[in-house]
Amino acid sequence: MPSLPTGVGLTALCTAREREAENRRPDRLFEDRTARVLTEVIDELPRPTGLPDGCSARSRAFMRDFVALRTRFFDEELRAASQRCRQVVLLGSGLDSRSFRLDWAPGTEVYEVDRTDVLRFRHGILSMIGQEPRCRRAEVGADLRGDWPGALRAAGFNPWRSTAWGVEELLPYLSHTENNQLLRDITAMSAPGSRLVMDHFDRALQRSARFSRLTEDLYTVSAAWRSTLEIPDRWFTPHGWTFALTNPTELARRSGREIPDLFTPQAGAQGLMWLISAAR
């Protein structure tokens, strides 16, 4: 079994735990069998030096509801996009298992891009499960602050085909400059008809007292938030994307869930967490 990923890669472990917690609910918003096995294996591995209990306990109360709603949002958006875009790219895929659990349109190809240590860890666990993917899939080891477009093309990606891009739990860990470059790279490889699904948050959430402990945990594992997104249209429009925002509060209502206070914006704020779907 390969060792645990380091730094920001450790955040994927926290997300896997929260998806497994949702998986146990009778009213679950999705079913993720892989998350169950991942959590069991992770719990048996030695805890890396410096990883606080907060990654699995203190921060859980703050993120569990959002992780469940965000997962449901990305599931629905990406599955629907695959009806038109048979090429799907998951940037910063982490321990995601969508290749194995979603009903993709026939002929869909999914490219999972992340750091090599993260992919190696997940591959070791998935090989134990023996679960078969529901699409053609390729793992692409690359640093998203480097030449990941070159690595993606080398893996067989075709920039002339429309693509559905999934960028989940990634943007806050990149700087504004890195996010701008990421969007430029995505745009350069997006044929007409492409779709883009993202999440981010604004500065008000970063300053929230409710998130102070989570912020401390992230700093402990060298995975600090480095950027926020205040006005999405100023970012997307110059790149030629039209977009729509889904408020987690509205998503909670549609999903039959109690609306956590965490999702309620302060007076005058547009929102604390952004769920974004865009088209080109």
Automatic annotation (TrEMBL):
<dbReference type="InterPro" id="IPR011610">
    <property type="entry name" value="SAM_mthyl_Trfase_ML2640-like"/>
</dbReference>
<comment type="similarity">
    <text>Belongs to the UPF0677 family.</text>
</comment>
<dbReference type="GO" id="GO:0032259">
    <property type="term" value="P:methylation"/>
</dbReference>
<keyword id="KW-0489">Methyltransferase</keyword>
<comment type="function">
    <text>Exhibits S-adenosyl-L-methionine-dependent methyltransferase activity.</text>
</comment>
<dbReference type="InterPro" id="IPR029063">
    <property type="entry name" value="SAM-dependent_MTases_sf"/>
</dbReference>
<protein>
    <recommendedName>
        <fullName>S-adenosyl-L-methionine-dependent methyltransferase</fullName>
        <ecNumber>2.1.1.-</ecNumber>
    </recommendedName>
</protein>
<keyword id="KW-0808">Transferase</keyword>
<keyword id="KW-0949">S-adenosyl-L-methionine</keyword>
<dbReference type="GO" id="GO:0008168">
    <property type="term" value="F:methyltransferase activity"/>
</dbReference>
<dbReference type="Pfam" id="PF04072">
    <property type="entry name" value="LCM"/>
</dbReference>
<dbReference type="InterPro" id="IPR007213">
    <property type="entry name" value="Ppm1/Ppm2/Tcmp"/>
</dbReference>
